[in-house]
Design a protein that fits this description.
By secondary structure, the protein is of the alpha/beta class. Helix content is about 35%, strand content about 15%. The protein has ten helices and five strands; from the N terminus they run H-H-H-H-H-E-E-E-H-E-H-E-H-H-H. It is elongated, with a radius of gyration of 26 Å.
């Protein structure tokens, strides 16, 4: 009706009389995607969801290539924008307070040699905080420098040496295979029980230089991933819930999450490569 009378009356006046917004008259439906474009769009959405809303255009492009689908990062970005897909890495991060350092005389034996040729040659560790039912709880992770795999973990209500010892007990490898254990100078790592456990299995101890996070860069980077992809995306009502979901995340991280530093392989895939 409006189109038929547009030569006699203004569009605004007719829309006003008919109580229709002008946008309804001017609206033109977007053309349907062709089968190839629809296949690409569906694949991008599926890969993003399978990544637990974490992958950006670079990793999605890698996963598309595995499916023999070619697309530029720019095109993938447009699809993500159209579908409202926002990576977890766009969320701002909260920085924790600093605790008293470990004053041990142990020096930095690792010397930032973060690339290791043997599995379990060097395991690094750190702790971070997670909000549980309105209170801070803590997670300890052990990371193998060979393939960035999370080989041990624990969670608890207090940031203590006992939490570190629980992570040692959870290790998925025999302790006598580990050659070096490196951490920062957090006081929770300064404990006789931990030192005796490491000495029993002949594991060399290494500590970062005081106030130098770069000496434990891999652990720091892993925890940034952990906070972005896991801790900041969930609300935990109990320590038990945190424990269950932490176990699930560690499995996903090791078995399904691709890493740029590993040639876009998962830690499990990298470990199985022929030496």
């Amino acid at each position: 009706m409006i189109r038929s009378n547009a030569h006699k009356y203004s569009v605004s006046a007719m829309c006003s009389v008919l109580q229709l917004p002008k946008s309804t008259y001017y609206y033109k439906p977007k053309p349907a995607l062709n089968p190839d474009e629809q296949k690409l769009e569906d694949a991008v959405v599926e890969i993003f969801r399978d990544s637990r809303n974490n992958y950006g255009t670079r990793k999605i492009k890698v996963e598309l290539t595995k499916r023999s689908i070619q697309a530029s990062r720019r095109k993938i970005g447009k699809i993500m924008q159209r579908q409202g897909l926002v990576s977890s890495y766009t969320v701002a991060q909260y920085k924790p307070y600093k605790a008293a350092p470990n004053e041990s005389k142990t020096t930095n034996q690792l010397q930032r040699k973060f690339s290791q040729d043997e599995p379990y040659a060097v395991v690094v560790s750190d702790l971070t905080y997670v909000r549980v039912d309105g209170k801070w709880n803590y997670v300890c992770l052990f990371v193998d420098l060979f393939n960035r795999e999370m080989v041990g973990y624990s969670c608890g209500q207090r940031k203590t040496a006992e939490l570190v010892y629980e992570a040692i007990a959870s290790l998925s490898v025999r302790l006598d295979r580990i050659q070096m254990f490196h951490t920062d100078r957090g006081s929770e790592f300064d404990n006789r029980l931990i030192s005796e456990a490491l000495a029993t299995f002949g594991i060399q101890r290494s500590l970062s230089k005081k106030g130098c996070p770069y000496d434990n860069a891999v652990a720091e980077a892993t925890f940034k991933i952990f906070k972005t992809e896991f801790a900041n995306q969930r609300q935990f009502q109990s320590l038990k819930q945190l424990s269950v979901e932490l176990r699930d995340y560690v499995h996903w991280f090791n078995e399904h999450r691709i890493h740029g530093t590993l040639g876009y392989r998962t830690p499990a895939e990298f470990r199985r490569l022929p030496s």
